[in-house]
Amino acid sequence: MASAMRSVLSRGNATAQAVKAPIQLNSLTGTYATSTYLAALKKSPKDLESLAKDIEAFDKKIKEDAKVSAFIQNPTLSASERTKALSSVVPSGSSPILLNLLTVLSENGRLSSAPKVFQDFGSLISAYRGELEVTVTSAEPLDNKALNRVDKALQGTEIAKGKTLKVVNRVNPSVLGGLLVDFGDKSIDLSASSKVNRFNAALTRE
Fold it and tell me: Pfam families of this UniProt entry (predicted)?
C-alpha cells in the first residue's frame, strides 16, 4: 500500500507531509484514493476540486461507455497496450493526476479497481467539503423523489447537524427490496433480505 501511495504522489510531485486526508481509508483502493487526494491538495484546493470533477466525469464515462468499461475491465491487455490506450480514453484537458492514477493502477495490474478507487476518492472529497455522504443501496436505481425523501428524513438528525448531505444511490440486487442506508458510522438495514435472514435465524433457534 505504501508503495502505491508513494508512486502516485511522486508522479504528482507531492509529498504527504504538508497535507492530511480528512478521513482514514484502510483498504488498498482507499490508499490509492488517498494518495491521489494528497497529490492534488498539495498543489492547491483548486487543483483538488478540478480533479474531483474530472474523476466524476470519467467514472460516469466508464459506466455509460461500453468500450471504455470493457477496456478498464480487460485483464488480457499488456502493460504497454494499456498505457497507450489510457492516453486516448482519458479526455484531453483532464487533470494530469487522473492519468497518473490510472497509469499506476495499470502498472500494478489493478486498472479494474478504478471505479472503487473513484468511490473512495468521493468519500474523501465529501469529507473535505464538510459533506455527509449517505449511501442508499437498493435493488434497482431510485428516482430523485425517493432520494429526496431520504435526504429530508436525515436532515434533522444529530449526525447531519452542520453538514451538507450528499445522497448517493448504489444498486445491489442482493438486497431483494427495501433499502440499506449508510451514513457516518451508522447503518440502517431496511432491506427485504435482512428480514428474510432474521426470519431464518428465528426458525433455526426454534
Answer: OSCP
